[in-house]
Task: structure prediction
Amino acid sequence: GGQPGAAQEQAAPLASGSTARPEMTSSWAKVVVTPFPAFRVQNADVRWLRLFGFTSSDMQNKSLRIATGPKTKMEVLKRVCASATTASSPTEFATFYAKSGDELSLVLRATRENGEGHIAIEMQ
Result:
């Protein structure tokens, strides 16, 4: 007889046939915010700053609203941040805006950041 597990459903591969978990890749841009609106930025990694065209000094004492615009749905951002308290971190699509005004359609997910109760929002 064959292996009983051979017919089991396999996880859908990510881009390029990779089956690596998203957490293991470095393609996610990360911004750490307070867990409630106005989502004050605590920290943004280099990938996030590069993606949005901001400098770290641009982000000092700023809300994540600096990267929002007409097509940004704040309820999606609120839902993603609320999901950070659950074990699974579901992904959502949202539109943000770079400093240049360019629209960025991104996949978002959120996790609890250690320590202060902040939320880490990852985007790609």
